[in-house]
C-alpha cells in the first residue's frame, strides 16, 4: 500500500506503510473481533447491545484537557505492561505516579501485541487516573468503542488508512457516546477528506509507521501537515525523542504523544520513565 505525502507527495517523495507488520496486526485483531461477535445470536442482539449504552456523563474530556493544558503544548504518554507478568494493578500504580508529574492524558495499549488482557489494564488505569485516558488499539467495529466507553476511557484513535470509508460511522458512534476520536492521518489527502467532516482532533505519527528514505523526513511530514490544519482543530503529534520534541514544539502541535517503547524501560535495573517525563515536562514548561 503506497501513500503519497502531499496530494501526491511532499517534495515528490513517496512513503510506504510498514505493510506486512500492519496487515499481521489487523488480521489478529479481526480474528479476536470475530470471536467476540460470535457470542451474539443475531444482528438485533448486537444492535441492542450498542444502542443501550448511555453516553458518558463527562463527554469530550481529552479535548478539554488539551485546550486547558497549563503548558502551550499538552503531553500525552502511552503506557503498556513492562512484562506480560505485570498486573493491571501494577500498571495502574505506575500511571498514578505519571499523573502526579503533570501530564495531560494517558494512553493505554490494549492490543494483543502488548498485553494479555488489555481491557483489564484499561479498566484499572481508568479507575485511578485523574487525567483523561485513551484506549490505544486498532478499532474496526462499534463493539470495541462500546467496550471503551464501559471501561471508563475518554478517547480512542481512528486510523484513516485502516478504516477508509468506514471511519465516519465509527466516529459518529464514538461522538454519540461522548468519546473523543483522534483521527490519525498520514497525508494531505486524508486531512482534506476529514476536514470536510469537521473533525476537531487529529493525530500524526501515532500508530502508523512510514518507511521514509530520507533522515528527518518524518518530522518534515508532520510539520507540513500541521501547517495545513484547520484553524479550530487540535493536533497530536508522536515523538521519538526529546530532541524531536524540541524540534516540533515550535511548529504548532496542540499535544505531543510519547510512545511507550520510547520512554518506558529500565537502565541498570532501574526504571527511567519518571526521569524522562520530568525532562520533557520541564523542557516544555520553559519554552
TrEMBL record:
Enzymatic reactions: 1-(2-carboxyphenylamino)-1-deoxy-D-ribulose 5-phosphate + H(+) = (1S,2R)-1-C-(indol-3-yl)glycerol 3-phosphate + CO2 + H2O
Listed Gene3D superfamilies: Aldolase class I (3.20.20.70)
Domain called Indole-3-glycerol phosphate synthase: residue spans: 41-255
Keyword Isomerase applies: no
This protein's UniProt keywords: Amino-acid biosynthesis, Aromatic amino acid biosynthesis, Decarboxylase, Lyase, Tryptophan biosynthesis
Pathway, per record: Amino-acid biosynthesis; L-tryptophan biosynthesis; L-tryptophan from chorismate: step 4/5
One GO process term, biological-process aspect: L-tryptophan biosynthetic process
GO MF annotation terms: indole-3-glycerol-phosphate synthase activity; phosphoribosylanthranilate isomerase activity
Matches recorded under InterPro entries: Aldolase_TIM (IPR013785), Indole-3-glycerol_P_synth (IPR045186), Indole-3-glycerol_P_synth_dom (IPR013798), RibuloseP-bd_barrel (IPR011060)
EC number of the protein: 4.1.1.48
Top EC class for this record: lyase
Protein name: indole-3-glycerol-phosphate synthase
Species whose genome carries this gene: Ceratopteris richardii
Amino acid at each position: 500500500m503506497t501513500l503519497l505525502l502531499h496530494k501526491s507527495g511532499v517534495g515528490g517523495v513517496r512513503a510506504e506503510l510498514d505493510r506486512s507488520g500492519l496487515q499481521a496486526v489487523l488480521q489478529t485483531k479481526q480474528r479476536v473481533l470475530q470471536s467476540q461477535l460470535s457470542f451474539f445470536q443475531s444482528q438485533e442482539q448486537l444492535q441492542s447491545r450498542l444502542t443501550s449504552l448511555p453516553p458518558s456523563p463527562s463527554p469530550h474530556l481529552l479535548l478539554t484537557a488539551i485546550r486547558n493544558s497549563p503548558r502551550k503544548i499538552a503531553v500525552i504518554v502511552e503506557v503498556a505492561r513492562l512484562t506480560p507478568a505485570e498486573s493491571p494493578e501494577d500498571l495502574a500504580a505506575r500511571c498514578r505516579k505519571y499523573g502526579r508529574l503533570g501530564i495531560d492524558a494517558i494512553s493505554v495499549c490494549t492490543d494483543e501485541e502488548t498485553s494479555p488482557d488489555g481491557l483489564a489494564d484499561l479498566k484499572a488505569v481508568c479507575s485511578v487516573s485523574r487525567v483523561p485516558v485513551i484506549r490505544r488499539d486498532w478499532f474496526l467495529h462499534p463493539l470495541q468503542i462500546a467496550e471503551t466507553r464501559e471501561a471508563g476511557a475518554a478517547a480512542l484513535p481512528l486510523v484513516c488508512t485502516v478504516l477508509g470509508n468506514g471511519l465516519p460511522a465509527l466516529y459518529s458512534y464514538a461522538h454519540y457516546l461522548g468519546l473523543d476520536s483522534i483521527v490519525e492521518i498520514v497525508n494531505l489527502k486524508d486531512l482534506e477528506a476529514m476536514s470536510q467532516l469537521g473533525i476537531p482532533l487529529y493525530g500524526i505519527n501515532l500508530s502508523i509507521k512510514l518507511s521514509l528514505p530520507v533522515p528527518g523526513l518524518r518530522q518534515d511530514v508532520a510539520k507540513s501537515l500541521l501547517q495545513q490544519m484547520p484553524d479550530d482543530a487540535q493536533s497530536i503529534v508522536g515523538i521519538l525523542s526529546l530532541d524531536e520534541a524540541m524540534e516540533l514544539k515550535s511548529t504548532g502541535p496542540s499535544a505531543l504523544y510519547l510512545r511507550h517503547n520510547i520512554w518506558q524501560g529500565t537502565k541498570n535495573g532501574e526504571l527511567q520513565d519518571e526521569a524522562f517525563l520530568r525532562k520533557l515536562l520541564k523542557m516544555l514548561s520553559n519554552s
